[in-house]
Sequence to fold (218 residues):
Amino acid sequence: MDFCDIYKIRTDIADYRDFSALLSVDEQKRMDSIKNRLQQKKFIVCRGFLRNTLSSYLKIPADKICFTYGEYGKPLTDGIHFNLTHSHNLCMLAVSGLPVGLDAEYIDLTLDYLKISRRYFSSNDFEKLLAVSGEKQIAAFYKSWCIRESFSKLEGKSIWRTMNQQFSCDLEPDSPARIIYPEKYAKYSFIKINAEENYFCILASQKKISTVNLLFRR
Fold:
């Protein structure tokens, strides 16, 4: 099952009321714990979107899908691999026959990305970032961040394990995304996905997926 279908939905356009009835009791509790009403609506849209989409693969009603959760909160279900990501007003979902990790990030031009990089990246990666000139520098930062995040989500681990001197990835904006060190992850596949303007997105997998379909809903 060497495929990956990628869906997206705009949480600022979708009507959360279309998805409210699909949430499980546990998801309702999680939604109630969110104090910000706008974030509540985004949570409802993302979880309902996840359930609706997986329903067509699993051939069961959306509200009957049961999830288990990994050590760091990665949702899992029998019969299909998937990964959900959301940033700003965009929610994306990867559905695959193989384990995958998907990360999308809104490109915030006001973000002090050099301060973040200095604190969390290896000294080698930070020096490589400083060497990138002009407008390409922020693209290099988001590329590095998405590699780390998508890799962590693929592995079902915390992103913080990539924030140390023992982790390095390619920061050249125009070159293929890849992990350089640890070398055992150098063969992992990282595919840049053109999601929407002002977003950076990467799909991670342990081996290259031959068929990636970018599909749209709403």
